[in-house]
């Protein structure tokens, strides 16, 4: 049985230690999406559901069911990002981000300390897109849906987007299109072992 410690951010990164290498545009989701997100956060009945909760630009809540195999793939990706990703940030799971189409929760992200520090204290969704967003495909996902999320994350400022198929195959993308390997995590394998 594979056991992995998932890193949790226990303290807010110091703003005096962050590099000044890039200034990012903070994205603001449509007002209807922000209102729906705020309502979801205030609704206790939604807090313990075994679903990922997102919003769309029309203010509707979107619930996605995940299987244990989906969760296992997420955990494997976090484990591999800890091993192969850059040292100046951390992977996060189902990290809420503001997009032009509402609040989305990529299955896994990698966000640098510099970008994380740009998130306002107490934010319920990050207005700054993480450098890497990963979507783990589920049976209910269509290719068009995954393509739309990929474009949304890249347009929002992600440097790379990975799509993990249900069999564990990883596909890497940047703003130029498909890549044969990740530039952010060069040692990342092209397949994630979905089993133990």
Description:
This protein is α+β, with helices and mostly antiparallel strands and 196 residues long. 26% of the residues lie in helices and 22% in strands. The protein has 5 helices and 10 strands. The chain has helices spanning 31-41, 44-47, 68-84, 113-117, 143-155; strands at 51-55, 61-65, 89-93, 97-99, 102-104, 108-112, 132-136, 160-164, 170-174, 177-179. The strands form 3 sheets. A 6-stranded mixed sheet has the order 3-6-7-8-9-10, with helices on both faces. Strands 1-2 form a two-stranded antiparallel ribbon. Strands 4-5 form a two-stranded antiparallel ribbon. The termini are close together. Mean pLDDT is 82; it is low at 1-21.
Q: How would you summarize the topology of this molecule?
A:
Layout: H1 31-41, H2 44-47, E1 51-55, E2 61-65, H3 68-84, E3 89-93, E4 97-99, E5 102-104, E6 108-112, H4 113-117, E7 132-136, H5 143-155, E8 160-164, E9 170-174, E10 177-179
Parallel strand pairs: 7-8
Antiparallel strand pairs: 1-2, 3-6, 4-5, 6-7, 8-9, 9-10
Features:
single chain; 22% strand; alpha+beta; 196 residues; 6-stranded mixed beta sheet; 10 strands; globular; 5 helices; 26% helix; two-stranded antiparallel ribbon
**Which blocks of ≥5 consecutive residues have pLDDT under 50?**
1-21
Q: Give me the strand/helix succession.
A: HHEEHEEEEHEHEEE
Mean pLDDT reading: 82
Shape: globular
What structural class results from the helix and strand content?
alpha+beta
Q: How many E-type strands?
A: 10
**Percent of residues in beta strands?**
15-25%
Fraction of residues in H or I helices? 25-40%
Q: What is the first-to-last residue Cα distance?
A: 5 Å
Rg from Cα: 16 Å
The biggest beta sheet reads: 6 strands, mixed
List the strand order in the largest sheet: 3-6-7-8-9-10
Number of helices: 5
